[in-house]
Write a structure and sequence with these properties.
4 strands, alpha+beta
């Protein structure tokens, strides 16, 4: 038996970002009200906006690129400088 969830997202009329990507929705466990989910949706994307603005404000020197083998163990991790 599955647990009940409540989801929110754009209606399927094709709401997209400026680059053409579909705006994803979010879901939570349990039964939630429409106003609670709308508030959660807006809070979620406000956090996403703040993270994106902080990431885009970084200079190239503030970013580090690494290469390694394995998604968990990260064997042979080295910084990429070229």
């Amino acid at each position: 038996m599955s647990e009940r969830q409540t989801s929110i997202g754009p209606r399927p009329q094709g709401h997209r970002t400026a680059s053409g990507n579909v705006i994803p929705g979010i879901s939570v466990y349990g039964r939630e009200t429409r106003p609670a989910m709308i508030e959660r949706f807006r809070r979620h994307y406000q956090r996403q906006l703040e993270e994106a603005q902080a990431a885009l404000a970084l200079t190239d020197d503030q970013l580090i690129v690494k290469t390694y083998v394995g998604s968990w163990a990260r064997k042979g991790e080295k910084e990429v400088t070229e």
